[in-house]
Amino acid sequence: MSQSHNNLAAFIWSVADLLRGDFKQSQYGRIILPFTLLRRLECALAPSKEAVLAKYEQVQTMNLPADGKEKMLLPATRTPENPQGLTFCNTSQMDLSKLGQTGIKDNLENYIQSFSKDAREIFEHFRFDEFIDALNASNLLFKVVQKFGTIDLSPAAVSNHEMGLVFEELIRRFAESSNETAGEHFTPRDIVKLTTALVFMEDDDALNREGVIRTIYDPTAGTGGFLSSGMEYVYEHNRDAVMRAFGQELNPDPTPSVRRI
Length: 261
What we know:
The chain has 261 residues and is mainly alpha-helical. It contains 14 helices and 2 strands.
């Protein structure tokens, strides 16, 4: 992990200084990890925010079920930098910098509920609402929101690969503070790269052809390192390849999500 990634992870983890005394060390990660994810989602959506909101006004007038409205909105996430668009969106005019201090708990909960279904479920698995309540009761919610609102986690500033490294470092710190074994949560990057190369190396010629479509599945996804590494390997050989990643994880904490956004 480079010094810049380590510094970013250290800055994010410094939120623990605000939590000390009101929360146990084992709870720090339960707050810091979902807020990191929330900020990453927010930064990823920023370039298409206005387009999504404009489309949302049109979609609201249509008699469509919730799933249908989401499908109508997703094309609006396409930008010149990301012509494929995103697989999630948010229909709130809020972001972390606009939640305010008065009524911040309700504003934050409404903001999260404005995400599309798949993204919203991530925070449900984190049981994020419980910690929002606890932060609000401790008069810390506004301070934590302010802190994360200053961090630039946009894909332009922090690539998917770099975000994965930052997130792994956060998980390592969380594991240490919880007296858990960090190795249970992620595999060292060198091992991930070696394994990925062994899986794909005999397919290099085929990957360079037109119309390449590949799926990749990890039955024990963990932080999603093998999935993202496999996708990166294919894209290095063929930027026009169509990749679909699938994974499952026994641990309900949705830690792979940040890496792939």
